[in-house]
Specification:
It contains 15 helices and eleven strands. It is of the alpha/beta class and 370 residues long. It holds the Pfam family DctP.
């Protein structure tokens, strides 16, 4: 079993030494030497680097996540499902220890930490790294789009199986996708009722990424860049009029306490997270263990989606008592703006990148269009 700082963060005797090494490593991440620097840091901490392929003893792998352990949402529940199933399907010989709440690597540090082998599994919030992983952020360039959470998961699975460029983009950073976790289908949560395109004119709407600013402008509204953690106060104080979000996240962030109109505008599901592995670790697994990981990855999207749908159903059932009104937005009015040159410019940016990588871009894009 692996030992050292990253396998026992509660060990106070080495805690300060490990924290200092991690801090130095993270500084070096930003200077381009993350893999080599992280490797030296792990050696200094006595982290074992033996290949499981040549090691018959039990292995404990590390899963790095920003999600708090007690969150109780679909992300946390499905992560624990994966961990429990991995142990069961390897007959207890191997297990995964989850380092919750960014205790080893924060959200934006996880890709580099996984690349360097600080952890073996982890959650990568793909839209945060659209320049690093543009192909795997395809959906983020095509909002609105008509697919649901599970449909986007299956599209990602298909693209990875059919087009090697998707996997190679991750392999360039010593990463491999073993599962997909799209976000829920989004609408708009607003502080006043929105019933038509005319009602959106001049509204201040939270945006992020590539597609949302262009879409909001095409709708005649004003894009406002505000962090997720600051959106509650922005809605409460009328800095924002609306934010794109789904019911589960609206409830989780408590936005539905201060914004009481959920607009069913069909923005579609956004691609959210890759369940990623350190590629070297994946390749070093014996065939039986790797097959377990592959099978769990195939089943993960359904397990996650089942939990997500339960949460969404519960949230919607509770909204009337909280005074939240659900309003249907005319789909045709949303679709009518998609040809706007600003929206098309964002889509063409992804198409150009995909074609440069040798992908049949239009074949992929056709699955993201109304």
């Amino acid at each position: 079993m692996r030992t050292g700082r990253w396998a026992s963060v509660a060990n106070k005797k080495i805690g300060n030494q490990a924290h200092a090494a991690q801090g130095g490593m993270m500084k070096r991440f930003g200077k381009g030497g993350m893999i080599a620097s992280a490797a030296m840091a792990m050696v200094a901490l006595g982290v074992a680097t033996t290949s499981f392929a040549n090691n018959a003893s039990a292995e404990t792998y590390k899963w790095l996540t920003f999600k708090p352990q007690g969150a109780g949402d679909a992300q946390a529940i499905s992560t624990q499902w994966f961990v429990d199933e991995f142990k069961k399907r390897t007959n207890g010989e191997h297990e995964i220890e989850v380092f919750w709440g960014g205790s080893v690597a924060k959200t934006r540090e996880i890709p580099d930490a996984l690349s360097a082998g600080v952890g073996e599994f982890g959650d990568i919030v793909t839209p945060y790294f659209a320049d690093k992983f543009p192909l795997n952020n395809a959906v983020g360039f095509f909002i609105p789009q008509p697919n649901s959470t599970i449909e986007i998961a299956h599209l990602m699975e298909k693209w990875h199986a059919k087009y090697p460029q998707f996997s190679q983009e991750l392999a360039n950073y010593n990463l491999k996708a073993v599962g997909f976790r799209p976000l829920e289908s989004y609408g708009l949560l607003c502080t006043s009722p929105i019933r038509s395109l005319a009602d959106l004119k001049g509204k201040r709407i939270r945006t992020y990424g590539f597609a949302y600013p262009a879409l909001v402008e095409a709708l005649g509204a004003t894009p406002v860049s505000i962090a997720t953690s600051e959106a509650y106060e922005a809605l409460e104080t009328s800095i924002l009029d609306c934010t794109p979000i789904g019911p589960a996240l609206a409830y989780g962030w408590k936005y539905d306490e201060v914004a009481k109109y959920y607009i069913e505008i069909p923005l579609g599901a956004s691609f959210g997270h890759l369940i990623a592995m350190n590629l070297d670790t994946y390749n070093a697994m014996d065939d039986a263990t790797r097959a377990v990981v592959d099978k769990l990855g195939q089943e993960y999207a359904d397990a996650y989606n089942d939990e997500l749908e339960k949460t969404i159903k519960d949230v919607r059932a509770g909204w009337p008592a909280k005074g939240v009104e659900v309003i249907q937005f005319p789909k045709e009015e949303l679709v009518s703006v998609i040809k706007d040159e600003r929206i098309q410019a964002v889509r063409q940016e992804w198409i150009a990148r995909a074609e440069a990588a040798g992908l049949p871009a239009q074949e992929i894009v056709s699955e993201l269009e109304f």
